[in-house]
Amino acid sequence: xxxxxxxxxxxxxxxxxxxxxxxxxxxxxxxxxxxxxxxxxxxxxxxxxxxxxxxxxxxxxxxxxxxxxxxxxxxxxxxxxxxxxxxxxxxxxxxxxxxxxxxxxxxxxxxxxxxxxxxxxxxxxxxxxxxxxxxxxxxxxxxxxxxxxxxxxxxxxxxxxxxxxxxxxxxxxxxxxxxxxxxxxxxxxxxxxxxxxxxxxxxxxxxxxxxxxxxxxxxxxxxxxxxxxxxxxxxxxxxxxxxxxxxxxxxxxxxxxxxxxxxxxxxxxxxxxxxxxxxxxxxxxxxxxxxxxxxxxxxxxxxxxxxxxxxxxxxxxxxxxxxxxxxxxxxxxxxxxxxxxxxxxxxxxxxxxxxxxxxxxxxxxxxxxxxxxxxxxxxxxxxxxxxxxxxxxxxxxxxxxxxxxxxx
Length: 408
Prior knowledge:
It is built from 13 helices and 14 strands.
């Protein structure tokens, strides 16, 4: 988290910064080859950038702590996630373009899922992602829920916001909705749905509302062949944070295909630039809006998706897709280009992990390392060492000559 003394040194200028986040970037060696996904991929442009950059590895939260995507992005933006009370539900809602109201809105991130016993709140979960339906199918299911639920559940309004594939968001609006609720997602197939319970007296009303919603929603979805269940997690209200632009003297734009990442950017006050469907559209927006901002957050999801699925070759392909796009980003001539991740998602693990994430900062003020490569081990000897993610934006500001000297 940026110190108030450091914040007082911020010196705005027109130099442009691009922060390119490869979700779930880091990996671990394949058991047959001994090489990680990054070491296996052919990355000529990223390897070249690594040799020209300051490099190292980034500890996203604390050693040994595995970060969720929301807290990880807050850390990347310079806000220590231990100091900001929030959950992923609010980020998903904001990223879907929904204007949450303070004190009366409670949001949850949701998955359509396949249940062994449709219509039952204690059913075993067969598929946590319901076979990954397409976006159009997700919209159909959300519309079905919205139409059949009626206007209210237990006196509260309910908003169903479609996302991508199996993902959607639920927002409950009403008085007395506290966020102290557990997830009903068991996190593993073959386990039963978990009853929603209140963490304390203040969240008992919210628990009643959510359980009533789940009971009715599962009845509505019971006739679906695949997406006959719902998993809710990350219940959260709207947190308050110091705006990113005010904090760092920047004019920032966020470009991301997935709502959650647009949500965390919106939470800290970045301007969300459209709702691109893929990385190609993200790059088109970057080029089109280049004159309008001096800080761009660009998010790439494919590396994380492959990591969660355990698809080593697919993660290699995703890395190579980003590598092929690097020249187009360089052609815009940003003064600072940062390429890193929000966390590691090793294919052999299929989940987020605590391992430090590779990071490079290309600028005229970087310290090149001719022996570097864009990989976990290829950046171990970099001048940045292992550094906290909350230091990334101050480092970006320094490389863009946006921080004055401290003291005489």
